[in-house]
C-alpha cells in the first residue's frame, strides 16, 4: 500500500464559481423540461376524461400547484396546496453568494493592481518629462516669446505641472492598455477582435490632435490675442497663466480627435448609421460650438470657433467612413 501524502488533496477545497453554479442549474432545468416533454401520460378514461393521473399535481389558473386526489379514494377529500420548490436550494444559494463575494473581491484586487501599474507609469513618464522639461518649455513658450513669473514659486510649480502633464501623455499607451486588460475578460469574441486595433488608433488620433493644435491652432490663437496690444498696452504673459492656457487649449484637441473612433465603434455595433448622422448634422454643429465654448480656456468667439471647426470636420469624416462601412 502506498503511503498517504497530503499533496494528493487540495486544501482548502476550491469553491465553485458563480457562473458554474448557474450553468449547472440551467442544465438541470433544461434536462427536466426535456424529460417532461417526452413523458407519456395516462390514457383518458370515463372516470378520468382529461387523462390526469390521480397522484400527480395539477397547476391551477392562479399559478399554485394543487395535489391531485386518488380516483379510488373518497372524492370529498379536499385538495392540498403544495408550495412551489424554490429555484435554488439553501446550499446552492449560499455557494452563489460566496462566489459572488469572491468574484467582487477578485475584481477589486485586479482593479487595484491595474491602478498601481498606471500610477507607476505616470511617475516614470513624469520623471522622463522632468529631465527634458527645459526642452518642453522651450517648445510651449515658442509662440509667445519671452515670459515672466510674478511669484517666487510660480516657475517651480510650472516646471512640475509641465512634467506631470508630459508624464501622463507619455504613459497614455500604458493607461489605455491597462484599462483594456481589465475589461477584456467580459468581452465577446467579436468585441475582442475590435479592441485589437482600438488602442493603437486611439493613441494615434490623440497624438494627431496634439500636433494639430500645437502647430496650427495655438500659434494663431496667441497671435490673435497679442494683436490687441498697442504702444500703451504691452503684452506681458505670466509663465504660470500662459502654461495653463496652453494645456487647456491643446489637450481638448487630443480628445476631440477621438470623435471618429467613437462614432465608428457605435456604427460597428449598429447603434448608429450614416443616415442617422446626416439627419442630426445641424444639431451637432450647434453642439460643437456649445462644447467649444465650454472647454475653451477663454470666453472669446475665436477660441470657440477654433475648437468647433475641427469637430465638425471630424464629424463629416465619420459620416463618410460609416457610409463606406454600410456598403460593405
UniProtKB/TrEMBL annotation:
<keyword id="KW-1003">Cell membrane</keyword>
<protein>
    <recommendedName>
        <fullName>Sec-independent protein translocase protein TatC</fullName>
    </recommendedName>
</protein>
<feature type="transmembrane region" description="Helical">
    <location>
        <begin position="162"/>
        <end position="185"/>
    </location>
</feature>
<keyword id="KW-0813">Transport</keyword>
<feature type="region of interest" description="Disordered">
    <location>
        <begin position="33"/>
        <end position="60"/>
    </location>
</feature>
<dbReference type="InterPro" id="IPR002033">
    <property type="entry name" value="TatC"/>
</dbReference>
<keyword id="KW-1133">Transmembrane helix</keyword>
<comment type="subunit">
    <text>Forms a complex with TatA.</text>
</comment>
<keyword id="KW-0472">Membrane</keyword>
<dbReference type="Pfam" id="PF00902">
    <property type="entry name" value="TatC"/>
</dbReference>
<feature type="transmembrane region" description="Helical">
    <location>
        <begin position="305"/>
        <end position="323"/>
    </location>
</feature>
<keyword id="KW-0811">Translocation</keyword>
<feature type="transmembrane region" description="Helical">
    <location>
        <begin position="115"/>
        <end position="142"/>
    </location>
</feature>
<comment type="function">
    <text>Part of the twin-arginine translocation (Tat) system that transports large folded proteins containing a characteristic twin-arginine motif in their signal peptide across membranes.</text>
</comment>
<keyword id="KW-0653">Protein transport</keyword>
<feature type="transmembrane region" description="Helical">
    <location>
        <begin position="197"/>
        <end position="222"/>
    </location>
</feature>
<feature type="transmembrane region" description="Helical">
    <location>
        <begin position="283"/>
        <end position="299"/>
    </location>
</feature>
<feature type="transmembrane region" description="Helical">
    <location>
        <begin position="242"/>
        <end position="271"/>
    </location>
</feature>
<comment type="similarity">
    <text>Belongs to the TatC family.</text>
</comment>
<keyword id="KW-0812">Transmembrane</keyword>
